[in-house]
């Protein structure tokens, strides 16, 4: 079912999941504040999704969804993050984010067509990165500008394809 980006945003603001939708335009959760609702997106096709400059106190779950463009710059996932079986067509930016405190960040079984930027991220709890395809690589294990990603808990990084230690952003 097709819905507008405004209708999709309204559903998220009410704490409702986006399921089985095709959404054109930009869904922009950039609040520069705290987001106290779960964000659940599954089985969707989304043109553009941004959760940048936001502190998510509840879990963000993205599953079985195709994103043309997406970004999470300066985003704190204090409620955790789960990305499973998704496709990201363009550059994906997590720069200067993470901050998952006591909740897991799980990125598993995804297909990234373009570069994934983790520059200057700080992960305070468990991070799982498994079975992903990084076609243009990532700096998850690199040191762009001599600044590595900070992991307070040893991450579990297994069975990924692509270069994980690029020194670019």
Please tag this protein with its features:
169 residues; mainly beta; nine-stranded parallel beta sheet; seven-stranded parallel beta sheet; 21 strands; 40% strand
Structural notes for this entry:
- With 169 residues, the chain is mainly beta.
- The chain has a domain at 2-117.
- It is 5% helix and 40% strand.
- The chain is built from one helix and 21 strands.
- The longest helix has 9 residues, at 5-13.
Count, helices:
1
Largest sheet: 9 strands, parallel
The chain-level mean pLDDT equals 97
Low-confidence sequence ranges: none
N to C succession of SSEs: EHEEEEEEEEEEEEEEEEEEEE
Q: Whole-number radius of gyration?
A: 15 Å
Helicity level: under 10%
**Helix/strand class:** mainly beta
In whole angstroms, the N-to-C terminal distance is: 36 Å
Name the overall outline: globular
Strand content: 35-45%
The beta-strand count equals 21
In brief:
The protein is mainly β and 169 residues long. The chain is built from one helix and 21 strands. The protein has a domain of 116 residues.
């Amino acid at each position: 079912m097709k819905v507008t980006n405004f209708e999709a945003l309204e559903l998220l603001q009410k704490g409702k999941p986006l399921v089985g939708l095709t959404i054109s335009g930009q869904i922009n959760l950039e609040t520069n504040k705290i987001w106290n609702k779960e964000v659940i997106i599954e089985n969707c096709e989304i043109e553009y999704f941004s959760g940048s400059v936001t502190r998510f106190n509840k879990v963000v779950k993205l599953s079985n969804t195709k994103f043309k463009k997406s970004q999470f710059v300066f985003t704190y996932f204090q409620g955790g993050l789960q990305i499973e079986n998704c496709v990201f067509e363009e550059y994906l930016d997590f720069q200067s984010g993470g901050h998952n405190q006591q909740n897991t960040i799980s990125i598993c079984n995804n297909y990234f067509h373009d570069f994934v930027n983790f520059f200057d991220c700080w992960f305070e709890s468990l991070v799982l990165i498994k079975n992903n395809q990084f076609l243009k690589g990532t700096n998850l294990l690199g040191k762009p500008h001599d600044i590595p990603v900070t992991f307070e808990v040893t991450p579990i990084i297994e069975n990924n394809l692509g270069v994980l230690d690029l020194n670019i952003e």
